[in-house]
Amino acid sequence: MYIGISTGCFYPQFTDISLKNVVDTGVKYTEIFFNTDSELEEEYLLKLKQIADEKGVQIISVHPFTSAIETFMFFSRTDYKLADSIKYYEKYFRACQILGAKYVVIHGCNTTAEYISMEKYAEIMNLLSAKASEYGVYVSQENVVRFKCGYIENLIKLKKYSNENIKFVLDVKQAARAGQDIWQLLDLMGDRISHLHISDQDHSEDSMLPGEGNFDFRKLFRIAEGKYGVKHALIEVYSKNLNNMNQLNTSLDFLHKLDV
Fold this sequence. Notes:
CATH topology: TIM Barrel
Number of strands: 8
Strand order of the largest sheet: 1-2-3-4-5-6-7-8
CATH architecture: Alpha-Beta Barrel
Helix content: 40-55%
Distance between the termini: 8 Å
Largest sheet: 8 strands, parallel, barrel
Radius of gyration: 17 Å
Number of helices: 10
CATH superfamily: Divalent-metal-dependent TIM barrel enzymes
Order of helices and strands: EHEHEHHEHEHEHHEHEH
């Protein structure tokens, strides 16, 4: 399993500074967590690419700063907004092209939007995916608490109704927060997993750096890579979980020493 770090771990720092922090650890894989619209301008994207390229870091995926409002963009009662929202997400697809990334992470529709069936949800995701494919990239649905696809019963329906170009991001902490069985999620997403978002947990905390809790990463990596061919696991925790770079380096050492 190839280990990387999301720039989201360093929020709310500027994304270019966060990326410098990532590459300074020596990891070779990352996800860019955008914070604002100006970061999608070509000049800024080329700056990020230069930072990554100088240290041979591969950008696996990008994470939209608009994730929190995707319900209102794509799954609103007012369908006329859908075309505009898909057009806006072309900014992320273009960003992927410039950065060399293959996946745009999607949170999707909030659980409160009861008027959206999962069949309709999949129809909209298929439209978004079709536009992404024009740029040579994929949309990748993440399991996130408070969103429909944070829950197994909805993911089953999404997988049933969506085309195979819809990928999945398996997030360990979000599974815990939603009270979902991580191993069932892993088998459900299966060979459509684009990458993993990893963090540790114990009986009192659901977001910790790997190695600080008791989550079974050996089992996760063994099944994800051995059974489903998943290659990348990116550390994604909140900045409050990260006190200093030594703490992060210790976590990386822990992961690299796993016998899998």
